[in-house]
Amino acid sequence: MRPSGRQADELRPITITRHYTKHAEGSVLIEFGDTKVLCTASVEERIPPFLRGTGEGWVTAEYGMLPRSTGTRMQRESSKGKQGGRTMEIQRLIGRSLRAAIDLKALGERSITIDCDVIQADGGTRTASITGAYVALHDAVDYLIKTRKLKKNPLHGQVASVSVGIHNGTPVLDLDYAEDSSAETDMNVVMNDAGAYIEIQGTAEGHAFRADELQAMLALASSGVEQLMQKQREALAAS
Amino acid sequence: MRPSGRQADELRPITITRHYTKHAEGSVLIEFGDTKVLCTASVEERIPPFLRGTGEGWVTAEYGMLPRSTGTRMQRESSKGKQGGRTMEIQRLIGRSLRAAIDLKALGERSITIDCDVIQADGGTRTASITGAYVALHDAVDYLIKTRKLKKNPLHGQVASVSVGIHNGTPVLDLDYAEDSSAETDMNVVMNDAGAYIEIQGTAEGHAFRADELQAMLALASSGVEQLMQKQREALAAS
Amino acid sequence: MRPSGRQADELRPITITRHYTKHAEGSVLIEFGDTKVLCTASVEERIPPFLRGTGEGWVTAEYGMLPRSTGTRMQRESSKGKQGGRTMEIQRLIGRSLRAAIDLKALGERSITIDCDVIQADGGTRTASITGAYVALHDAVDYLIKTRKLKKNPLHGQVASVSVGIHNGTPVLDLDYAEDSSAETDMNVVMNDAGAYIEIQGTAEGHAFRADELQAMLALASSGVEQLMQKQREALAAS
Amino acid sequence: MRPSGRQADELRPITITRHYTKHAEGSVLIEFGDTKVLCTASVEERIPPFLRGTGEGWVTAEYGMLPRSTGTRMQRESSKGKQGGRTMEIQRLIGRSLRAAIDLKALGERSITIDCDVIQADGGTRTASITGAYVALHDAVDYLIKTRKLKKNPLHGQVASVSVGIHNGTPVLDLDYAEDSSAETDMNVVMNDAGAYIEIQGTAEGHAFRADELQAMLALASSGVEQLMQKQREALAAS
Amino acid sequence: MRPSGRQADELRPITITRHYTKHAEGSVLIEFGDTKVLCTASVEERIPPFLRGTGEGWVTAEYGMLPRSTGTRMQRESSKGKQGGRTMEIQRLIGRSLRAAIDLKALGERSITIDCDVIQADGGTRTASITGAYVALHDAVDYLIKTRKLKKNPLHGQVASVSVGIHNGTPVLDLDYAEDSSAETDMNVVMNDAGAYIEIQGTAEGHAFRADELQAMLALASSGVEQLMQKQREALAAS
Amino acid sequence: MRPSGRQADELRPITITRHYTKHAEGSVLIEFGDTKVLCTASVEERIPPFLRGTGEGWVTAEYGMLPRSTGTRMQRESSKGKQGGRTMEIQRLIGRSLRAAIDLKALGERSITIDCDVIQADGGTRTASITGAYVALHDAVDYLIKTRKLKKNPLHGQVASVSVGIHNGTPVLDLDYAEDSSAETDMNVVMNDAGAYIEIQGTAEGHAFRADELQAMLALASSGVEQLMQKQREALAAS
């Protein structure tokens, strides 16, 4: 039995709200149950130095948690004077995942920065971030097309992400904080709409996981990502 | 005529939403028109080193803007590695303003940190922060009383804040971004419910302001703060 | 009775020494009683990036305290690795105050940096800094005119600053450290020679101040600034 | 055909040199072909603050690259003033992997820090680091047993790691720099001697990988880790 | 012929002003010609962590230059966020030199921090700093004796420092900026009142210096230090 | 008697291994007994900003210690966020010493960075670094000549360095850690092949050294440097 009463293969209620704030070219509040992340996509007509002269654009991400998005207040990273290792790991993961869905050549010499800021945390903030960030990126690309800065859509795939894990010996989908903090294994899976893998990050700090457990988790992830992509499509279909 | 069509002495629509997130002892979303700030109050059973042995508690504030809360994306302060001068000025102002409303001796050896994070900016983020922070602080104090950590209410005053300025030669109340960026003078006023001043910060980078203009702005601020306090009381009266 | 024996409306002895060091285009030691601040103005033939292409110049300020300018040694900000919030607040205030006295267009594409370094502190370091910085800026502008880099004087006003406060229930002028540390209210006022306000920063961490107290402090400030401007003019009249 | 002429399932020549430097409790130079990493294990009789009072010990890792371990000189992280995201990701991975092999309770209130410093890089520095770090950790534990600081061996598993990837459409084992920089997919796998997974980190920045490719890579990884563990055992068997 | 018209073995005019500021236990303005350094000694009843439990005290130094103490304005180290290599080198040199004159055991568990802040620079700031710092340290020790915190004087030697160099092929004493910037060799010598060496730091960035040049410079240094010690004694003899 | 059993004028066994790693233009492992330093020389076709337009090149050095190169693990400077004073002092010394051997005009608009990384420390890391760095620099210059980027050899001198000190009252050559940590005086001497001095840095934290002791140490240094230069020439003569 899961702490939340959910079935092993059951996602939390998923909500995707577009146009959540007014300034960003894409602005999405995504909720995986009590986990709430604001994902904004900002278009800038400049590129990082290492791309100069290549004709390519760039998509990158930054991640942050509001100090009291968590049960206990965390120190603000700006007052600590640096981003921690976990923050860097997550924002690098989000950036790589999105770049797997877009043709940077077709984007042209501009960059899109996705900011994922956690308003409230209850487990799965990185998978919610990736799933919401895709929708924000989609809106930013639509903005570029509508304003005739782009003629051709550079997105060539849909991306979503979910966590899976072993909890009390059972493979489960979309862990919340209560499960996450006591799980033996935690794996984040990023996939595209062709059912292929973009990222797999599985960690067993307690007990190592066997090959059969890995396969069970991958199957759960696959079904979870499929449902999340349906939610993304519904959100994007609304005006 | 003001860009927004408001009267010179008219506030923007004010909304105060309590219990906006679930972890913090006080959590308030305050909206001054399109300016939206999340103010959370976190109680911690420890005090900063300079207060050890005094028996007193502490109330402090931190302020941040989400990178795309503004028209143009701002660099994240955590990735710059330090908080800028404006951020420090604002969070020191919020902290001083709140400490003017509370008896730190009566609070006991604990601290309350107010985090004011700007979700969307349209002028007046510091005055909205102070006004929302007071409500979050009030909820955190109520939590301490309900959980019997405090017997006596340490709050001895109500605090709110509003901006006033000279725009196109006319004193106006509660400037939005369009006005703020072209105002000749900008003044932030923090007052208590006895009508006395806690902070006055008036700046004339363009043209210096005369004594009569100062008096007109102070009168507007006084009426604005009174209306904001009414909003605070209504929000706190709701369950 | 004030700790120093001064009348409520009496300034400390004011001394302004020009040409205090030999390298800077303007170099002024200003003393407000035991508070001693060295203000140097440095002309540089370059402008910050945000002004490129505008044809405008820039005036900015930096503020520092020698580690043992105070009763207890303070840690050096360079060894802490960052400037504190108070330092940033003060240097931003000095910069804004001086920019209110100069036509940046007429200054041309160059910048003047005013460094205010506190040699000895006894209250009022920021008001002494502004008052001395104006004289250093004046000397730097004179240097530009004498060396024919400027044809027209870009200064269009005179600027001085003084603190006022409520001490033992009485409004007083130009607080020294003994008063400042026990004052109920502290207000710094920056004015120009037309008697108009450039900055007002009033703070009541202890007790809020009433409208009548505000008016009494403003009157004291006005008279104090007038006397300081007279001192500035005398210093500038000397060769 | 692989650039190095190796078979798809062939490791590079592996060398493990123990007692490489004289001060550390464990000191191992590990070579995966031209990739050379010095792994030292340092025992310290203290624990990080978050473990105080738990009776547990700690194992952690730090990772660095000498500035010219790579084809082009990299800026030293100490002169940049911070560790980059990649460094943090890798050292967190090494630390987690080693902690999966040791009973921290049985280690007692002390910590072992593994420093992995890359002397020469040619792809696979993180997998070489983990594989060498295990041997250094083993030597440090032996030192604790020999010096009677520990009675019981806290190691309960053997850990090694290898990279796999898709290069020119073919799954290959232990990628060198020439392959790594042009691989479509790169996956680092950490396993224990029971054949279970401790970490899986697979990334497809270019093309997403299919389920069958994932299975082929996992099979290669399994065989590679088995061979590496044999090398570890041989090295540890030598005096 | 030297740019200043001085003889090869002639010091600049030396002035030592004690009690220059009022807060510090020792406060000395030292002038070597146009080089002016304020040296303050601050007594603190605490010691750095590495000395806890040893019963010893500590003497250390910090060094800074006001931004416009030099011909061209230097960026403030506090705004750069770190102390440069030159600053660190100099303050370590001052600290070592002073510790060579004092019995740290006899000082007891307290520390004296000497701050050397350059008000105006014209070459030789580090030798002026050491020479002035000794006098400030002496005053701080006198304060400890007068206030009965110390019974026995922990100072066991007198310390002074001077620079020597090869300028236009000639060994010269006490280089000013004009000489220093064009000298072939620059050497700073710190000596005690027994005529023995505490520090010798000789640098030849341009042309290496021969053994006979070294001897000539050492002879000049010796005579210069003797004169400086006479100045120190005269200053300390005054009340 | 010296702890190592060496004669007072006896160097430790010296080994110089060229081509130690494969990427750098010069790569030298130098061993002074148990002290082992890897010196790499990296050629880059760019110069620091302050040399732009001068036609000159640049030679600079960076120094680091692996965390467990020493008896007790040192914190990594990259995780501390800054290089310490000792590191800065040493890398500035290495850079100045090398620049004394090369004609920067003849080097042309390029820079050579020497990284000296201590693999194992047993006293004398800075003198070993300078001595090894010269060989690495020589190899990098040879590379520039062989690849026809330089026609003329810009090196005009040979540079080596050794430490001398007073240990148990006796002047000794090339101190190891056991001697260094208990020496009364420690002096590092950098010389060229004409027998002239490039740098002398002598420090007496404990007891000041007399003129006759200084002369004895200089004589030892001279003989030590001569032997080191012989070792450098032998190493460079090998292919």
Properties at a glance:
4-stranded antiparallel β-sheet; 9 strands; alpha+beta; 5-stranded mixed β-sheet; 6 helices; Ribosomal Protein S5, domain 2; homohexamer
Which secondary structure elements does this structure contain, and how are they paired or packed?
The structure is a homohexamer of 239-residue chains.
Chain A (H helix, E strand, L loop, with lengths): L13 E5 L7 E7 L2 E10 L13 E8 L11 H4 L4 H15 L4 H4 L3 E10 L4 H22 L12 E9 L2 E4 L3 H4 L4 E8 L4 E7 L7 H27 L2
Parallel strand pairs in A: 4-5
Antiparallel strand pairs in A: 1-2, 2-3, 3-5, 6-7, 6-8, 8-9
Helix pairs in contact in A: 2-4, 4-6
Report on this structure.
With 239 residues, chain A is an alpha+beta fold. Chain A has a single domain, classed as GHMP Kinase, N-terminal domain (Ribosomal Protein S5, domain 2, 2-Layer Sandwich). Chain A contains six helices and nine strands. In chain A, strands 1-2-3-5-4 form a five-stranded mixed sheet. A four-stranded antiparallel sheet of chain A has the order 7-6-8-9, with helices on both faces. In chain A, a hairpin with a 2-residue loop joins strand 2 and strand 3. At the A-B interface, strand 3, helix 1 and strand 5 of A face strand 3, helix 1 and strand 5 of B. Strand 9 of chain B pairs antiparallel with strand 9 of chain C, so a sheet runs across the interface. Chains A, B, C, D, E, F: It is an enzyme of class 2 (transferase). Chains A, B, C, D, E, F: Keywords: Nucleotidyltransferase, RNA-binding, rRNA processing, Transferase, tRNA processing, tRNA-binding. Chains A, B, C, D, E, F: Pfam families: RNase_PH, RNase_PH_C.
